[in-house]
Design brief:
By secondary structure, the protein is of the alpha/beta class. It has one domain: TIM Barrel (Alpha-Beta Barrel). It contains 16 helices and eleven strands. Strand 2 and strand 3 form a beta hairpin. Helix 10 packs across helix 11, helix 11 packs parallel to helix 12 and helix 14 runs parallel beside helix 15.
Amino acid sequence: MTALRNDRFLRALLRQPVDMTPVWMMRQAGRYLPEYRATRQRAGSFMTLCTTPELACEVTLQPIDRYPLDAAILFSDILVVPHAMGLGLTVNEGVGPHFERPARTPSDIRAIGIPDPEIDLRYVIDSVRLIRRELNGRVPLIGFAGSPWTMATYAIEGRGTKDFHVVKTMMYREPRILHELLEKLARAVVLYLNAQIAAGAQAVMVFDTWGGALSTPAYEEFSLRYMRQIVEGVGKESEGRRVPCILFTKGGGQWLDLIAGTGCDAAGLDWTTEIGAARQRVGGRIALQGNMDPAVLLATPERIREEVAAILRSFGPHAGHVFNLGHGITPDVDPENAGVFIEAVHRLSAGA
């Protein structure tokens, strides 16, 4: 494949020196961009956008064409894995994801098979291949998957939830059944991420969106245990270089030491964890990714620059920082403000 011309993102994840702090944004291919909205309208549905490699490639590249970002992230959804397991995913605008056949009984869970990525998720793997080709070495490509716990919350509840009533009832009443589902999901994610790496992904990230809803003992048993299994099972090298693995538990800053102990290369932080204190806790064990509040992008350019400077100051002149938002960029952000943010990260870190 084409040689990589900008590798500062990969170098930072491995805690190697960089000329400036690399930056990318979670959900950087999204509704805040007018070009994304146009492509989404042309596609007709979110699932068509996800399952058509040419369209997924198009929206993945849109923020790379617009901004000097240091990484591209595959456009897909964390729920395509349970969808490939036969649960019947639909995503409706303003409503969110919904599974037609949620897995709530032992027989439901036992009937679930492990998807073959090259067959059942071929559209994602083809998207990775196409994106790598079209990137032509400009920046690295990040592949990703949802954490087993996060995917299980949707698979069991059947939709998004605020109280996690159904899944937590299973967790405390029938933990063995929940573990059976989580084990299948973990095995599926290992296969899925390895297929993405084989197709050209140069780093991988596991999104544990709902890990923060758990108590510490439950987090260790039902979330972290399976993310550790993924870290251990995912390929560590491709095309002659390390493939870094990032774990991100939203609301999980209190478990940073546990996350660092999984063998991952980096941990994502949301804005509720002060990044300087986090760096002191993990030392040089792992890199850190984060962690500006996405709402800052709704402020003035001056305020955005101030917040970027404060986070860079907090982390300090140390290796191992990838600048990012603490969660996905929101649809109401002015694209010009995203540009201010990216420019500020590069300029202020290069002058440090």
